[in-house]
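Hi everyone,

Forwarding the result from last night's run.
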Amino acid sequence: MYSIFDSHCHLQDERFVGSIDVVLERAREKGVNAMMCCGTREKDWPRVLELSVHRGVFLSLGLHPWFIAERSPLWYDNLKSLLKMYTKAGVGEIGLDNAIPDPDMDAQEDIFISQLRLAREMRRPVSIHCRKAFGRLVKILKNEGRVSYGGILHSYSGPEELVRIFEQSGLSISFSGAITYSNNKRAHAALLAVSPDNLLIETDSPAMHPSGIASNEANEPGNLTIILEEISRLAGLTQYEVAALIRNNACRVFGNFKT
């Protein structure tokens, strides 16, 4: 049995309340022994911290662009305080989203940049979200400089020609269930442009269902094996080869972890 790392998920989601032990056990049975659980807003940070007591669950904390309107005046201070307390926590999920209704991109950029700088100050990896804002993201990363302590561009949906720019910025590229759809030629091309040392995979659970999983079901970390199978097929490698590669890459990005 191989051992793989889910580089981005949201186990704190209400769909997992009351069933998290079963969800984690199903994941382990399929070889998914490590998961990066990403907080998205102040009110879910405590739940992420609670989940980090489970074996194989690692944490990141951040303010997601979807939730900037509900932030408190002390959100940044609260985030920094938690990062000081939890010295192995990453910074994420953070980023930019121009696909939501009436996005306040100026506020998104300010909040994103402040968290990028906080990650640099605290020497932590970042987990970055980006939808329909890749030009803005490239500009910010060029202005801010290389991501000093690593991180990922999660559930990548950008073009293949930007992959090298993001890699040069210090980011690994992670693919979710969207890559399992046969008509997603953009993601397939982007995958083949990623350097092997910068490749990661994720479920983004409970969202981003892979092919074969009903949309009315909660996507789980155990479904990472579906993504692994498709990545292996597209890359022309065995699942064991991809699993080992992913695990090594995750160790480098997020630091050594124990399972």
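The CA atoms of residues 25 and 80 lie 32 Å apart.

Cheers,
N.
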